[in-house]
Amino acid sequence: MKKNRQKIFLTGIYMVKWLLIALIIGAIMGSLSAFFLSSLTWVSAYRETHRWLLFLLPVSGGIFAYLYTYYGRNAAGGNNLIISQANGGEEDIPLRLIPLTLFGTITTHLFGGSVGREGTAVQMGGAVADALRRVFRLSGYEREIILIAGISAGFSSVFGTPLAGTIFGLEVLALGKLRSEAIFPSFFAAFFANLVTEMYGITHIHYAMGVIPDWSVLLFLKLSLAGICFGLIGWVFSRSIVFLKKTYSNWVSNPVLRNFLGGAVVVAAALLLGTQRYLGLSLPLLSDAFSGKANPFDFVGKLFFTILSLGAGYQGGEVTPLFEIGATLGSTLAPILHLSIPFLAGLGFIGVFSGATNTPIACFIMGVELFGSQSAVFLLMICIISYMCSGNSGIYSAQETELEKGRVSLPLYESWKNKRIDR
């Protein structure tokens, strides 16, 4: 009886402690994300009316490459720094990472780089969490927990999806493993961060999938084919960025010159193709995809310019471009497969994301949060198929491989085999 009371008391202390920490993380991250999202809205609108700003992209890339190289310390690790530390690394995450990634991403969008938002939010969340870790004198295992909470808070507040944000932080660290021990602080950090962001008046655009079709064998086959396509595009996306980064590094050793030249390539490509449709955040691509107004090769255009921008080393995330690539690919495939355009655009929205990040559960939950539970079966099916078809390496190189896709866990297999022998 005494032991039970002691366990209840310790559980209560644990909950109060992590609820307080989650509240602080949520308040700070919610405020940072509100400023970040408001800034992105402003710079995106400003760039649309001042198209000449594109010519300054190489200059902005060179400036921030200089700042990262000579003043950023290990901040250049970005998302991979946060993930590696949450996996038990021993490097400090410098607070200077926050202004570097925040203003680096804002200026990239201002001058037309094709990048997203989640990377910046995750990095800020990790930096805030590590600073609080020093304040509360947490170390070792508890440091991993607070960093996971910071990742969840960043993802949740920038997309308005607290449930997906919670699971993303638990799932993104390792392939084949879910860090469920961090679920309490992760959920409340994600919940409070999103709440604070919304308190600033920030709203998120939602898209409708339209009428959900009835299940049939033919529909299963069509969606299986679409899921394979989404997974393959996710694989192309992640591998192409790695390849381009390596190519630039081999050709140009100086990071400042490398970013400048990479930006010049983006500008040249936009001029040669005669369009800025795929530059910046490109949110109109999503509206076009769900309304059936997307061009057949919009997914190729967004894929191409995002690879050029991120491969050159520009600051920003990958997830929003993945949404747009997936939704426009779904919109293109829908007439071919004789499916509803908004329905397949919605599945592509989360399908390519699932394949590229290796986080199928978080992507499924995000789909339910954004599109409703009526399509839950189809959302999960697409996430799983895309995940299985995208290889074991995603957009985060620091993501560990606990268990490769399609492989049976050796301890589980040995346990099953021993039970069979005992019978």
- Helix-strand string: HHHHHHHEHHHHHHHHHEH
Count helical runs.
Answer: 17
**Outline type:** globular
**Structural class based on helices, strands and sheet pairing:** mainly alpha
Strand order of the largest sheet: 1-2
The biggest beta sheet is recorded as: 2 strands, parallel
- Number of beta-strand segments: 2
- Note the gap between the termini: 39 Å
Walk me through this protein's architecture:
The chain has 423 residues and is mostly helical. It contains 17 helices and 2 strands. The protein has helices at 2-49, 57-71, 78-86, 97-110, 118-135, 141-159, 162-171, 183-199, 217-251, 255-273, 284-291, 298-311, 319-337, 341-357, 360-371, 376-388, 410-422; strands at 174-175, 400-401. It is globular, with a radius of gyration of 22 Å.
In short:
The protein is mainly α. The chain has 17 helices and 2 strands.
Describe the protein's topology.
Blueprint: H1 2-49, H2 57-71, H3 78-86, H4 97-110, H5 118-135, H6 141-159, H7 162-171, E1 174-175, H8 183-199, H9 217-251, H10 255-273, H11 284-291, H12 298-311, H13 319-337, H14 341-357, H15 360-371, H16 376-388, E2 400-401, H17 410-422
Parallel strand pairs: 1-2
List keywords for this structure.
mainly alpha; 423 residues; 1% strand
